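Homework help thread (please don't just give me the answer)

Our assignment gives two proteins as sequence + structure token strings and asks us to describe the second one. The first is just a warm-up. Here they are:
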Amino acid sequence: MKVSQMSKIYGLMLASGETVHQIGRHGIGKSEGVVGFVKDHGNIHMELLMLSQNEVADLIGMPYEENGITYWSKPVWLHRMEEAQAKGMECVLHLDELARAPLEVRQAALQIVLDRRIHEHHLPVSKAGLKTLIIASDNPSELYQTDELDAALLDRFCSFTLEVDPNGWLKWANNNNILSVITDYVADIPTNLHWMAEDGEDDKGSTPRAWAKLSDILKNIDMVPSNLAFSIIEGKLGKTVGHNFYGYWKDYVKVVKPEHLIDIIGKSPIKTQEEQEKVAKKLMKITKEMEQVSADQLAQKLRMGYQAGKEGFTYDLLSTYLTSLNLEIMASIIKNWKTDSDTSKFFFNWAKDVPDRHIFTKITNKVV
């Protein structure tokens, strides 16, 4: 299951009164996914219990005596949930690192999961009749130092094994102010979003969480001498990915981005073939030395921007960019678009929209 798909799962489980157990490697966005679901819903209150750091009293409160009878105080997190419920909100209880928790804490959590109660205190039920959604998060036991959960506890969950989702992470990153040098790198090399070293290798590897934190660091990188940048990047991403990304980051100013082309072409439509040839010559100054891989990646970005209707991503932009490329590279891109099942329909529909006055139509008739 992809992390980005879990939001729909949470909604279903909340409506169904079910509990969720999600298992996935560290740093892939399990916690962020829960937070995102709560934020997107707009009328949910969430409490996070980091069980590996909690004691039993944090979950169930403290005992006290009154008139010879033992009672249990209400934990503050439960009090906050009840306040939210009184305001008409749904509630989510996120039990993080359940399998890392001490045995007595897991046993205390068992009653919460099984009965949605702690002694005489019950988890809130919303005014719409929806029970508190319980979500437990863990790392896989075969890869991490975690304990096996009791079968009786697991039986009460709907369990999901989560995997890294580069496309979903990029959508999240674009909405959360992650630096474009990072999103462009991940888009180019998605396997490095979450790269783990082989057993025995001395390398921490990279995770989606590490990339997000690195973005914050790079926004303030001018605070330290430039010769420290490599060590900082390597310290966050590990040796292998860190070394690779450092070179990309250092040369990023040389990378041709859609924004560069939009600035050169401008927003006014190109009305004549002479105008397009003139603009194409301007683009050649920055595209003439592009290699096949880089040219193709930029073409894909322009194509997707055009299909999505993004501002500035016009057929003038895409066709003029293609005509500015080395003829062999241009021909290769167009042939791939025509033969690939995912892009062939786009190519023929788009090519019909490009006016005859464009030099692009003349060149494609010759090379394709």
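The one we have to describe:
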Amino acid sequence: MRALVDTPIWSLAFRRKTGDMSAQERCLERELAELIREGRTCLIGPIRQEILSGIRDDGTFERVREHLRHFDDEPFDVEDFERAAQFFNACRAHGVTGTPTELLICAVADRLDMAIFTTDSDFRRYAKHLSVRLHVPRKVYE
């Protein structure tokens, strides 16, 4: 199954030095590398924008942008935005609020039958009420 990789995972890989990562973070970074090697990663424009936003150093911005250009953005359909609104309403009915971008991620992942690879705990709350799946790393890396 393909995985829609969320901002926190990309940021971990691009912005953190391996020596500064916890064992769990290194596991997530290696899982991302495996997904990339297998051709199973997906990206959407809003996530690309989030990753690049806030990078103050021009050199770092260019390096990250060049890395990301190896990944095409999944296109949106009108139905994605409508589904995101439905997801917002469904979550809200259960007392769970989400951002438009997060619920758009859920809608695209649902339409394309992808799991969401993230460390953002909000997605665990959404998954309780929506038809979305979260990607779980396949193994613990030493």
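TA reply:
I won't write it for you, but here's a hint about the kind of observation we're looking for: Residues 3-134 form a domain with the Rossmann fold fold (CATH 3.40.50.1010).
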